[in-house]
Amino acid sequence: MKMEELKPNLANSLPLTPLGLLERTATVFGDCPSIIYNNTTYTWSQTHRRCLQLASSISSSGITRGHVVSVVAPNIPATYELHFAVPFAGAILNTINIRLDARTVSVQLQHAESKLVFVDHQSRSLVLEAVSLFPPNTKHPTLVLITEDGGDDGGDSKFSCTYEDMVRKGDPEFKWVRPVSEWDPIVLNYTSGTTSSPKGVVHCHRGIYNMVNEMLIDWSVPKQPVYLWTLPMFHGNGWSLIWGMAAVGGTNVCLRRFDCITMYDMIKQHSVTHMCGAPVVLNMLSNSPDNKPLEKPVHILTAGAPPPAAVLFKTEALGFVVSHGYGLTETAGLVVSCAWKRKWDVLPATDRAKLKARQGVRMGGLTEIDVVEPETGSSVKRDGSKLGEVVMRGGTIMLGYFKDPVASRECLKDDGWFYTGDVAVMHPDGYIEIKDRSKDVIISGGENVSSVEVESVLYTNPAVNEAVVVARPDEYWGETPCAFVSLKPVAALERKPTEKEIIEYCRSKMPHYMAPKTVVFKEELPKTSTGKMQKFVLREIAKSMGSLTFKSTKSNGIQSKVN
After folding, report:
1. Mind listing the pLDDT tens digit for each residue in 248-290?
2. Is the residue at 539 inside a domain?
3. The domain spanning residue 555 has which CATH number?
4. In what order do the strands lie in the sheet with 432-437?
5. Which helix (H) or strand (E) holds 475?
6. Which residues make Cβ contacts (< 8 Å) with residue 424, sequence separation at least 6?
7. What is the pLDDT of residues 391-420, one digit of tens each?
8. What is the pTM for the complete model shown?
9. Residue 468 domain flag
């Protein structure tokens, strides 16, 4: 046959999907541990069989192709298994943040049109309240209770059965439902809540399959790693590493909840090799009084917000090998990584940390990425200072927002690019560095102030534990930086710094117009369950504080504020 006559055929056109990875791993690593949770350990052959049984019961309950099945549970074996079992039944998986309030859970369940909801026993009252908020005469989803250690539901009439009941009754020979097209939806994820209006992000089998491969290749994950689940599985499906760990036959060490002591204990007990988390996890590990140098290196991948260089430096000093990336719920995981160059190894530690704080370059799953001027759409100058919006296109971008065509069109534009809403600079070497969300850039006296840059300086102060910077109205400048700061424990400080001292510290390390004009000390800063700072909450507090007015103080050049 001539070259132009060769076409796709039935043998090479089966839809791409991550689901087949479990089947292969059950064959290759069948006797190896797949999941460790408290005193329970499963092998990969057991996990494969349990997922098939569960999928069989889900299908028998009336769930079919295109139905949404929700999960409200922490990092436990059931959550992991449902990432295979639900799409095995042809359904679309929707994992819900367990730290949301009942009203928000209710809104998401209704918006997703969930037919079946798996509920962890500790979230029982949350979900029951959420369902009670459904409008009158609205059909409620069927509820299944996930009990601890296989316990029963105590005859709770609100739930149809228990999770383990469904596993036991299912057929281990169930023929799982393959997607008709690789563009068929596999997951519905709601954005994590750093803004006040979460949206339903839909990803297809093809996109998730591509993301799994990219994550494993870019992070250089070997076969059979030991992965500690400190990243919530409900957060972007654990950056798609749930399916990724199945691809390489890894051991998933599950944690219902964690703190520094638990993390260090699990690392030592199970010889953990890999883990992920937002920068807040790095901050916990490095600032905890219980921290200790690691016996063996642990690879930790961080993303979700630009990590301050000071935090990276302290984390790596303990023996963690930190990799930094960038992604969104809309990209199914990390699509940009700070690819490390060997020539950087000889640089001083502080310089290495600054380089590693950059987001980096596109991963192979992206076709293109750029930083563009919003007004013209043209690429910004590669000088490391000109701000623009990050745009990208490639095989892991979402299908769109569920039932929200307007929002979909706003970011998936006709020019073929996905507009992220993130503000960045492009460095001369082609590496990008996120400076802010577009709505978080502070415009003070006509100058753009990156809240992330101010936060990075604040994190270098030895008294600061966490810091967030937002805009506060200002009569003269329009708006000025307002810093919300939590300090390290009193025992670790000689004395608490004052607001003036924090401001002076920042002014000594950056242009004066960028330094905070207001500092608010708080015991704890508001975060999402994945560790992202909820800037919209602090933005409202700063707004409610009213506008600043200033009078010049010639003696020291600092303007004093009058509320």
Report:
1. 999 999 999 988 899 999 999 999 999 998 887 888 888 888 7
2. yes
3. 3.30.300.30
4. 366-372, 388-394, 418-426, 432-437
5. none
6. 359, 371, 387, 388, 389, 390, 432, 433, 434, 435
7. 999 999 999 999 999 999 999 999 999 999
8. 0.82
9. yes
